[in-house]
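ok new one. same drill as before - structure tokens go in, u give me an amino acid for every spot. 204 of them this time. try not to just spam alanines like last time pls lmao
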């Protein structure tokens, strides 16, 4: 897949947050200053207060400038009907990597309640294949996560963390800007997609 071209119109603080969320290897961001700068973009995200000033062909209005809101805006604006999501789950932090097919486009570090909220939110618009790493220390959290997603369209696969860890070196070289938790989440996603050392819990 070629790099996705995503434009943005709005506050610099929102722009900075958006830049922190995407994989620059695969998502090319552009701050759009005029209609002539829309050319070649797959999507232009526009904060609500700027809507009347933007006339690009494919726009999506951002009404929520939180991490959750920006992730949702990207997914819905790009029309992604299916997502592969790798998660490294932890008591205080959870690393998340969101892929379209096998291409990572979004990464974030969230608390456990925020992770549940985001997955439930995205499941309203996209089918989610969730790949979660497990080990004795977090097995109870994994069970809790599956339980909290019991009424939404999420297919959960449990990944052996030891197998996933073997991918970390290569991924760290390619994506040096990821946090440790996000790197683990991405490793879990790729391990899940390879179907090795994976146990499918099913659609929950």
């Amino acid at each position: 897949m070629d790099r996705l071209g995503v434009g943005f119109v709005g506050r610099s603080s929102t722009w900075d947050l958006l830049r922190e969320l995407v994989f620059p290897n695969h998502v090319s961001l552009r701050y759009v200053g005029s209609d002539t700068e829309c050319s070649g973009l797959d999507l232009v995200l526009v904060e609500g207060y700027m809507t009347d000033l933007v006339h690009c062909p494919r726009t999506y209005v951002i009404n929520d400038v939180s991490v959750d809101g920006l992730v949702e805006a990207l997914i819905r604006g790009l029309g992604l009907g299916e997502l592969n999501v790798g998660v490294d789950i932890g008591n205080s932090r959870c690393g998340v990597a969101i892929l379209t097919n096998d291409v990572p486009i979004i990464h974030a570090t969230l608390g456990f309640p925020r992770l549940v909220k985001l997955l439930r939110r995205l499941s309203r618009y996209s089918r989610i294949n969730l790949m979660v790493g497990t080990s004795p220390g977090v097995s109870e959290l994994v069970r809790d996560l599956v339980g909290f997603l019991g009424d939404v369209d999420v297919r959960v696969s449990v990944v052996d963390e030891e197998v996933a860890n073997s991918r970390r070196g290569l991924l760290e070289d390619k994506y040096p800007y990821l946090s440790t938790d996000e790197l683990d989440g991405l490793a879990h996603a790729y391990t899940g997609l390879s179907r090795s050392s994976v146990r499918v819990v099913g659609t929950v």
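The CA atoms of residues 5 and 28 lie 5 Å apart. and btw Residues 196-204 have pLDDT under 50 and may be disordered.
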